[in-house]
UniProtKB/TrEMBL annotation:
It comes from Tardibacter chloracetimidivorans. GO terms for molecular function: 4 iron, 4 sulfur cluster binding; ATP binding; ATP hydrolysis activity; ATP-dependent FeS chaperone activity; metal ion binding. Binds and transfers iron-sulfur (Fe-S) clusters to target apoproteins. Can hydrolyze ATP. The chain holds residues 67 to 324 of 327 of the full protein. It comes from the Bacteria. This is Iron-sulfur cluster carrier protein. Belongs to the Mrp/NBP35 ATP-binding proteins family. ATP binds at residues 26-33. GO terms for biological process: iron-sulfur cluster assembly. Homodimer. Keywords: ATP-binding, Hydrolase, Iron, Iron-sulfur, Metal-binding, Nucleotide-binding. Coiled coil: none annotated.
């Protein structure tokens, strides 16, 4: 007979086992959310019960990226994650109107994060990819101190300005003893759809160089590709499909899961 106390022990054990992978960037617009969503979908394709949490409370984009328009339901005050493209996901954007500005102070944001992370029915979901807000502010600190991710994946574009910010992001994780799983170079090289010529609007190779300098793994690159943008806007993560876009994200998912 399993008593209440035993259930509590099982729950604690289950919570401890659940791994959080933080996907972060030094600044916005570098494709952090796109990478986070496709990493979660990629991990699921590799056979894991992957989840995705939108910790970007002020700019939630997970509902758009997964094409989930409905509201998340709650049972006994516990949110039920949405299921889409083989993963479970939760976002503040699934609780309120995404057109509304979220003018919350720190404690409210921390409370919302806690609801998404600890007070939701995640069941056997593992690992959970966390789409972090850009930069090194209040939410990042709450996440690293309170929720202790097993590691962080940093997304950057190759240009110097983005890389300077990415270094700052890496520093925050290092200071708080969260291991850096590695860096991803997004929007790396653009192949012209009509002539095929590859150009480098943000430079090239900068992220790999930074990895070598900082002694952290380089996880791969994702090209600047219109197909990635259109699929993302349509709510169909490229990692769930086929072709070179899916291959790029699957290669990264394999590196992260290794
Ligand atoms: P962030 O989370 O860093 O703010 P997003 O993931 O929201 O960035 O991406 C910003 C925009 O760039 C989105 O419109 C997204 O579809 C697009 N995007 C991201 N990565 C790529 C890519 N590799 N190729 C083309 N468009 C991309």
């Amino acid at each position: 007979v399993v008593g209440v106390r035993d259930i509590r022990i099982v729950r604690t054990a289950e919570r401890r086992q659940r791994r959080l992978i933080a996907v972060a960037s030094g600044k916005g617009g570098v494709g952090k959310s796109t990478v986070a969503a496709n990493l979660a979908v990629g991990l699921a394709r590799l056979g894991m019960k992957a989840g995705l949490i939108d910790a970007d409370i002020h700019g939630p984009s997970v509902p758009t990226l997964l094409g989930t328009k409905e509201r998340a339901q709650a049972v006994d005050k516990k949110l039920i994650p949405m299921e889409a493209h083989g993963i479970r996901a939760l976002s503040v954007g699934m609780m309120i109107d995404t057109d509304r500005a979220i003018a919350w102070r720190g404690p409210m944001v921390a409370g919302a994060l806690n609801q998404l992370l600890a007070d939701a029915e995640w069941g056997d979901t593992d690992p959970i990819v966390l789409d972090m807000p850009p930069g090194t502010g209040d939410i990042q600190l709450t996440v690293v101190q309170k929720h202790r991710p097993v590691g962080a994946v940093i997304v950057s574009t190759p240009q110097d300005l983005a890389l300077i910010d990415a270094r700052r992001g890496i520093d925050l994780f290092r200071q708080t003893n969260v291991p850096i799983i590695g860096l991803i170079e997004n929007m790396s090289g653009y192949a012209c759809p009509s002539c095929g010529e590859v150009s480098h609007p943000f430079g090239s190779g900068g992220v790999e160089e930074t990895c070598a300098q900082l002694g952290v793994p380089f996880l791969g690159r994702v090209p600047l590709d219109i197909a990635i943008r259109t699929a993302s806007d349509a709510g169909t993560p490229p990692a769930a499909g086929e072709g070179p876009q899916a291959d790029a994200f699957m290669a990264i998912a394999r590196q992260v899961s290794a």
